[in-house]
Amino acid sequence: MNSVFVTGTDTDVGKTRISVALIELLQRQHQRVAAMKPIASGCEMTNVGLRNDDALKLAEQANVDLAYDVINPYAFAPAIAPHIAADQVDVAVELTVIKQRFDVIQQQADVVVVEGAGGWLVPINSTETIESLAVALNLPVILVVDIRLGCINHALLTVKAIESTGLKLQGWVANNFGRNAESIEIAETLTQRIWAPCLGYVPILEANESAADYLVLK
């Protein structure tokens, strides 16, 4: 498997859980797997600087050891959209910086799992979005869909936007599958309308379960 960019239909749909699971699954295949969370809001101040919980989870699972500021070059305290958080602290998010960090990571790993922020068209500065970031890294995309009311429209719009860039949609993941009675019908609808394969149906998990057990790489 090549390096991948993990995006979601919205914020709080399980991108980190699926990214961690992808890292674990690749490690089971004896890969050296690195993680990257280029932009993160909602970071907490620690004695070593701002740290993001999602980025730390990715780093903990990865088996390529990297400095935190390489994994997460843009860390912001406010739990708001990245471009707003960056404006509040007078920081400009630059794709060239992220690309430089990514290139450093890629040289040390077989695979890099890059997790986006929010949804596909969330702004990261005055002119660019998460989509711009994925295009700059030129990575195939895995889409995480939280199986809930409204996800069909969000998923299909996101798929259409990904396809318009020319990037490969490697697959999509049905997250929190089985949470409601309509989960099967929703997943079937998406399967009929998304040409890329479904990489897994991940239910709500118990504390001792791993989402990696529900994924298949294609």
UniProtKB/TrEMBL annotation:
GO terms for cellular component: cytosol. The keyword Cytoplasm applies. The lineage of its organism: unclassified sequences, metagenomes, ecological metagenomes. Keywords: ATP-binding, Biotin biosynthesis, Cytoplasm, Ligase, Magnesium, Metal-binding, Nucleotide-binding. One of its GO terms (biological process) is biotin biosynthetic process. The keyword Transmembrane does not apply. CDD domains: DTBS. GO terms for molecular function: ATP binding; dethiobiotin synthase activity; magnesium ion binding; protein homodimerization activity. HAMAP family: BioD. This is Dethiobiotin synthase. PANTHER family: DETHIOBIOTIN SYNTHETASE (PTHR43210:SF5). InterPro entries: DTB_synth_BioD, P-loop_NTPase. NCBIfam families: bioD.
